[in-house]
Amino acid sequence: MESQNLRPGHLTAHQTARQLGISLNGVRQLVRRGRLQRSGGSPRQPWYAVQDVTTLAIERHQGKVA
User: Fold this and answer.
1) Which residues lie below 8 Å from residue 9, measured CB to CB, with a gap of 6+?
2) Which residue, among 7, 16, 18, has the nearest Cα to 52 in the 3D structure?
3) Segment holding 41, helix H or strand E
4) How far is CA 2 from the centre of its chain?
5) What would the 3-class secondary structure string for the chain be?
């Protein structure tokens, strides 16, 4: 279920996973490894900053291209 009170500039965990092309577990692993930080929401429904997700997406794309 998507958060109805999502602040502008933030993505839900589901949206983040879609943007990165990974699973929700993959998002959790990025957080656990310190590659992505929660920027709001709740422990059960975290939000992530669009800028952070975009940076990760670019890094992932460059890693695959290089």
Assistant:
1) 49, 50, 51
2) 16
3) strand 40-41
4) 14
5) CCCCCCCCCEEEHHHHHHHHCCCHHHHHHHHHCCCCCCCEECCCCEEEEHHHHHHHHHHHHHHHHC
One-letter amino acid of 50: V
What's the rounded Cα separation, in Å, for the pair 26 and 32? 10
The pLDDT profile of the chain, 66 residues, written as one tens digit per residue, is 455 688 899 999 999 999 999 999 999 999 999 999 999 999 999 999 999 999 999 998 888 755
11 neighbors 19 (Cβ within 8 angstroms): yes
**60 vs 41: CA distance, rounded Å:** 25
